[in-house]
Amino acid sequence: MTAARKPLVEVEGLVKHFPMKKGFFISTDIGAVRAVDGVSFEVGEGETLGLVGESGCGKSTVARTVLRLIEPTDGSIMLDGHDVTRLGKSEMRPYRRQMQIIFQDPFSSLNPRMSAGDIVGEPLQVHHIAHGKEKDRLVAEIFDQVGLRRSQIKGFPHEFSGGQRQRIGIARALALKPKFIVCDEPVSALDVSIQAQIINLMQDLQRELHLTYLFISHNLAVVRHIADRVAVMYLGKIVEYADKETLFTKPQHPYTEALLSAVPVPNPKLKREKRLLQGDVPSPINPPPGCAFHTRCPYAEARCKVEAPVLRETAAGHGVSCHLVN
């Protein structure tokens, strides 16, 4: 999945399986949860790649694995031309500054015992960038960037609203001046009016600081607003990718069609044909043979049940993993 611009992040064949064990004193492997099962993509400098799909499809696991918050089972992760897949803790430390994350829940991701200023300033101390008055000066500047008042620096998380807490989370991610930020459903826990403010803030920061985003969400309307390109995940794999206009106007995978048909249309006179999916996402412990989507696909043929489709480009920059697409 090639980026339109010079790639900053390159992920190839990413796999993350969580082993399942049985027994107390002597544990034995009885299988694995195939959370991410061969994902490849690139994110260009200054670009936003949207990653969408139902809950449980592996989006957040991709996010944490790319950042090496959890270790990959297989595959490679390149950051700005450097392979960071197997680096040790000390070797990885310089790259930690270049990769940051904005978490979904703006309350549980903040330490309730620390003031907002200490939360934002902690990365500066940990990486020995600034201490004392210099740290306080940088924290104040970051508060200005994210739309918080300097008078709020000594406040604690419970004193802030949900939108303000997420601004603190964004400020913490910006503290080390990263190149790449993973946004793991950063607005899903916020009110709709606040979502718009946070999305606009993120876009302003991207233009100002030339940031690169991997934006994970199940809200396709938000993704369409912020993303340049979109990748659709299903059961640990990418099943379709394209630039956002192509994906939203000419989806080719049946799963993408079903997701888009469920997006509300802000026009009561405009009716859209809804394609409701039957059943739930299959278990990643024992995924179906062949195409993983065939158990819910209204167009599935005999071939789909035994042969797994390959993700291939059907047009420039548009890839689909489906036997039924020419």
Overall description:
By secondary structure, the protein is an alpha/beta fold. The chain has 9 helices and 12 strands. The strands form 2 sheets. An 8-stranded mixed beta sheet has the order 6-7-8-3-9-10-12-11, sandwiched between helices. A 4-stranded antiparallel beta sheet has the order 2-1-4-5. α5 packs parallel to α6. The model has no long low-confidence stretch (mean pLDDT 91).
List the helices and strands and how they pair.
Elements: E1 7-22, E2 28-44, E3 48-52, H1 59-66, E4 74-79, E5 82-83, H2 89-96, E6 99-102, H3 116-126, H4 132-145, H5 162-174, E7 180-184, H6 192-209, E8 212-217, H7 220-226, E9 229-234, E10 237-243, H8 244-249, H9 254-261, E11 312-315, E12 318-320
Parallel strand pairs: 3-8, 3-9, 6-7, 7-8
Antiparallel strand pairs: 1-2, 1-4, 4-5, 9-10, 10-12, 11-12
Helix pairs in contact: 3-4, 3-5, 4-5, 5-6
